[in-house]
Amino acid sequence: MSRIWTFILRGIKEFCNAIILVMTSVILLQITLRYLFGRPLLWPEELARFALIWTIFLMAPVLASQNKHLTIDILDKSLKPPWDSIRKILIRLIVIGFLLFVFLQSVNLVPWFIGIASPAMKAPMTLYYGILMVSVFLMVIEYCIQLFHEIKKLNLVRRVKRADRA
Hints:
By secondary structure, the chain is mainly alpha-helical. The chain contains four helices and no strands.
């Protein structure tokens, strides 16, 4: 499971790299057409916005897997092993609960935009809002994996303490 998940996250990261390349190219095209030829297109700005939104939401699970999201780490170094694991488990449970709430809200939001097209590209607006559902779903998987590993680590700490007492 770990190899498959790592492969999926690596694929997401490479896909986001491609999206950033497309976004940069489209913005350069728009700058060139606007300032050199005085004939800007309508769709490049919308495509760039779309690409930025997708990159942000798709990279969120990748950053979660690397523990690179913004955190407050006052307690990280002050808690001893069993309490630190309990803190991490509680945090992950809270985050999973919040993400599930956001997922359910996005499931209710996306159908409102079925049949509505974006102004310039005429792309379905569900693509703009649907990425939230995908991102949150992937983040729930990532935090569940982290929760599982933290519970395993907590059980290992308890076993070591019992062995030390015996």
